[in-house]
Amino acid sequence: MHGSAPRLLHLLLLAELFVRSSPRPAHCSPLCGMFRPMVLQLNSLNNMSKKLHHLTDHELVIFEGVEHRLDDLPHIQHTAAHFSSLKVNESLSQLLRYTRSFRLHVDWLKTAKENVSLSSRSTGGAGAHLLRLSDLLTASLLQMGEEVPPSLSPPLAPISTAFDVLRFSVEMSERLMVFCNWSKRVLLRLQRLCDCPRR
């Protein structure tokens, strides 16, 4: 029994070394420091998106049931199958494409607000958070050695009336909040895939 003790200790040390070294995928573990800043940007963006239209709950009733017209915005998938099949590189690329699309539309909405003399401060703030998120996602992809998807800027039609600006502001607010909640769920899943330490 005493003779087997050193061998048992040796095996236990090897097992501990294996546990410490093997679970975290080497390809994405350097990204662990990037996820929290992304989530912080999404939290700020979510708070800012609630202020895009400056309407009261009573005034928002006017826009209930109004058909959404921002068809070029990303269509978010919430299925369990989608979240269970996430891959780090593909998910970061998708997040970057979605972020760029929302930023393009937010900048377009900001210009429309200024053209009809409506406050664009919150819209400009949302655009700033989207830009920072885009930079973080780009840096993450480059850190992984992945190709950064090209930026696309399709033209968006001008908005002619203040009512349409408000209608699009309400829709943008709703779609941005969905995007923020979905993106945080994706990042949480990626943190687990990279075996990042929990805080």
From TrEMBL:
Q: Which SUPFAM superfamilies match?
A: 4-helical cytokines
Please give the Pfam families that the UniProt record associates with this protein. IL11
What is one GO cellular-component annotation here?
Answer: cytoplasm
What domain of life is recorded for the organism? Eukaryota
* Signal peptide stretch: 1-28
GO BP: any one term: positive regulation of cell population proliferation
A GO molecular function for this record? growth factor activity
Q: What is this protein called?
A: Interleukin 11a
